[in-house]
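Data deposition worksheet. Section B asks for the primary sequence of the deposited chain exactly as it was used as input, without tags or linkers unless they were present during the calculation. Section C holds the resulting structure in token form. Section D is free text for depositor observations; keep each observation to a single sentence. Incomplete worksheets are returned to the depositor.
Section A, Depositor: J.P.
Section B:
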Amino acid sequence: MMYFLTESLTRQEYYTRLKLRTEVTAKAKFEVNNNDNRVYQDLRTQHLKVLPDEKEYIIEITDNGRLLTQSLPPKLIKSIFKNKYAEYVEQGVYYVGILYTHQNKNYIVAISATDPVGKQDLIRLRTILLFSFLITSVLSLIIGNWFSNQFVKPITNMIAKVQNISAYNLDLRLDPQKKGKGELADLAKTFNNMLDRLETAFQIQNNFVSNASHELRTPLTAILGVTELALLKPNQENVESLEIINKQASRLNNIINGLLKLAQSGYNSKKQLNDSIRIDELVLSILDDLKLTNPESKIHLDFSDLPEKADYLTIMGTEPLLRLAINNIIQNACKYSDNQIVNVKLFLINGKICLKTSDKGIGIPKKDLEHIFELFFRASNHGDRMGFGLGLPLSYRILKVHQATLEIVSEESKGTDVYVYFNNFYA
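Section C:
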């Protein structure tokens, strides 16, 4: 803006100087006699400095409006005829012309000159403004960045501290701001209060899990001890029953240990996925157990679409927990279909292992579908079937730890399809 304003003022000032010379030239040519003209020209030369490349033009206009010579730019001449005065610049040459009348004859009187000094001044001004802009921009960037860093530094420190807080170090707290007032101080206090509540909740959870696990382990230990002792002196009549009791008690013990590990780890999947598990073998084992615990169940197993390579069916996880999750899903299908045929199919789709469980049971009402993963929630049409609303939410959480996806498609009175998608780590 400054440059264009200066350029406009410089150009107008130069036009003013040319206009003065044009008027002086006209008066010297037409209104002064020869003797006075020489004096006038001498004074003009002495007191009016000659401009660079200055030229005078005095062109007579004929009666029919034609010029005797065509030494001036056509646009300038046209403008002089129209306004009796014109300013024009072409290729760095400035022109000022007037329409002058003397003794009933019309003349065009014009002066042209260049302005190298003004041009150099404008170039210098442009250079100065450009460097000033660059320096100002750099300084603004540096200063703005410094102020920005100073402003966001407390927030950055707070974010870094929050990111380092996990289930294992809930005792950490954010540092209160120095002045202890303002939005940042309030935010730090709010975070600290939230961490206090989380730490208390985790302590209550861990204490409950530890106590519950201890209480459950006590009878299990007694059962395992008695069965192992009885098996040392086997009786042909009860050895089979004792073996079943021992096997199921051991499995229950593993489940309790897995749940304890899951709760105490804060659902940290990196510490859970330790075992290499064949999904097909796990499903077969679960179905064998269901035949013992629920002999009325009718399950049709479909392995017709299994891949040729066994590695394609292998995932990483914790076997007792995964067994519990899949067992809950299949058991629910049997229970809520009143032990009608339940189809269990294992196959690959889009690079994932899919376990599909289908039943033709009571289904789930549409309004209940969005709540089925909530603890203690049971569908409104469960009837008198026993349950506590823990199996499916627990399966959902266990599968989530194993980076698996659980999807349920159901229609009331028509049945339910449950899809479990596992990531294949070996394919």
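Section D:
The chain has a mean pLDDT of 79.
Residues 2-114 form a domain with the Beta-Lactamase fold (CATH 3.30.450).
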